[in-house]
Give the backbone structure.
Amino acid sequence: MKQPRSIVITGASSGIGEALAVLYAAPGVALALTGRDTVRLEEVAARCRAAGANVAVAAVDVADRAAMADWLQRIDAGAPVDLLIANAGMSAGTGAGGETEEQARRILAVNIDGVLNSIHPLLPAMRARGRGQIALMASLAGFRGLPGAPAYCASKAMVRVYGEALRGDLAESGIGVSVICPGFVKSRMTAVNRFPMPFLMETADAALVIRRGLERNAARIAFPWPMMAAVWLLALLPPAWTDRLLRQAPRKP
C-alpha cells in the first residue's frame, strides 16, 4: 500500500516501532500505537501528533489475547486499518548462565502469541473489505538457531515461516503480507549487547528500508545484505560444520 491512512504499530514505544511511527506520521494519517512503557509511548505519540497525525495509544500486553482483540477491534471500527505492523517483541540470551524455562516461555508468548494476537482480530474485517496489509517483524536470527538466544531464534523462525505461508493464503483476499528480517539495529534491545554487532544500522535507516519494502509489497524485507548473505550461508552449511563456530560466538546478556 503506497499511502496507508490508518496504521497500527505494536511495540511502538522504542526501537524500530518508534522509528516507523515517526516516519509514517503525517496529516491525514491515523496511528494506533501500543507498547509496554506508557511514558515512552506518550513521548512517541507527542512527536507523531506534532507531525500532524491523529494518534491513539494504549499500553496493552500483546500476549494478552482478549485485551488485544478488544483494542484492535475498537481501533478498526473507528478507522478501518490499512496497515498492521506486528513489531512488538522481546529478546534475552544465555549470557547469565543459561536460558531458564520462565525466560523461554515469556519470549515465545510475546514474540509468537503476540504476533497472532495482533493479526487475527483484524483479519475478518480486512477480508470483508478485500484490502489491507500486514507486516510481521521476524529477524535474520530466524534463519539459523544460535546458541546464545534459543527462544528468540525459535520465535523469529516461526514468525518468518508463518508470514511467508500467510502471504500466499491471503493473496486472493486482497491482503498483502510482508516479513521483515532485520540484522542488528540500534535499539534498547541491542543496547545491552556487549559484543561487536556487524553492520549495525541506525534505527531511522532501518525504518526507511522497511517502509520502501512495504510500499512494494515485498514478500521479504531482509537487511543489511552482507549480514543476510552470512546468515544464508550459515543456514545452508551442514550443522557439523557450523556448530563449533557458533558455540564460540559471544552470548547475549
